[in-house]
Amino acid sequence: MNVKNVRSWVRQFKEGRTSCDNKPKQSQPCTSWSDNMFKRVEKVVLEDRLLSVENIASKVGISVGSVHTILHEDLRMRKVSSRSVPRMLADDHKAARMAICQALLTRDEGLKGTLFSSIVTMDET
Known about the structure:
Elements: H1 3-14, H2 35-47, H3 53-60, H4 64-74, E1 77-80, E2 83-86, H5 91-110
Antiparallel strand pairs: 1-2
InterPro entries: Transposase-MT_Hybrid
Organism: Cryptotermes secundus
Protein name: Mos1 transposase HTH domain-containing protein
């Protein structure tokens, strides 16, 4: 326990506190995740994908951590080149990737399996 906390406890006991138990809470803790909040965050992001998590939090009125959780875990978005993009590919993107892969396989068969040894790959991020 740091000195600041010890001083706080000493002050509270000098003022008349008699127990080390936590005081009962007045209300339930506020949760910021709801369908309404989920939709509001999604709407703000889709309107302007260049907004930072801090800006989204201030526009929606919830904490930065809650916005981060909604973006990354619920909406499954991530930051790519300063834009939030969905992690899941649309059907047309999947079809385009499939066509490119099939073309590469056909080309590799024509080169007797030497094409893939000369390709360098990396993640987009």
